[in-house]
Recover the amino acids of this structure.
């Protein structure tokens, strides 16, 4: 939205308002879907002239490369071309700038939980054998 709307504010005054979006916190699979990127694709944009840090993804860059063939987008840029971010037509919202890390899911659940589950599974196999370990893990998964 780029045209201001006149709105009655809580203090009783009328003001022009232009709405925008703040940070969007989501877990990794949702971030991948929102940004229209390939899951697990971590390659950064290249700094070909060697002038410094590689640039972040931008809405403009994504729009410019969307004209390429699907297989090139997927392999070279990590972009999924058959969906568009919900912010695509918002003049003041860039999904690449809005996505914020969800520390709980990405660090704690993503690293600690996965490590502890692997450790427990290994412990069960050593202690009770593969068949009983599988049975115990299935019981845990039900919960």
């Amino acid at each position: 939205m780029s045209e201001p709307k006149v709105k009655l504010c809580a203090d009783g005054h009328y003001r022009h308002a232009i709405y925008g979006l703040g940070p969007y916190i989501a877990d990794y699979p949702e971030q991948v879907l929102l940004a229209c990127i390939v899951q697990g694709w971590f390659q950064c944009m290249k700094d070909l002239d060697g002038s410094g840090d590689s640039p972040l993804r931008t809405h403009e860059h994504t729009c410019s490369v969307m004209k390429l063939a699907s297989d090139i987008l997927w392999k070279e840029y990590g972009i999924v071309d058959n969906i568009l971010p919900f912010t695509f037509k918002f003049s003041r919202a860039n999904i690449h700038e809005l996505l914020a890390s969800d520390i709980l899911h990405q660090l704690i659940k993503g690293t600690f939980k996965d490590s502890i589950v692997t450790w427990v599974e290994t412990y069960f196999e050593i202690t009770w054998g593969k068949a009983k370990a599988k049975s115990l893990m299935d019981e845990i998964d039900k919960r």
Notes: The longest strand covers residues 5-8.
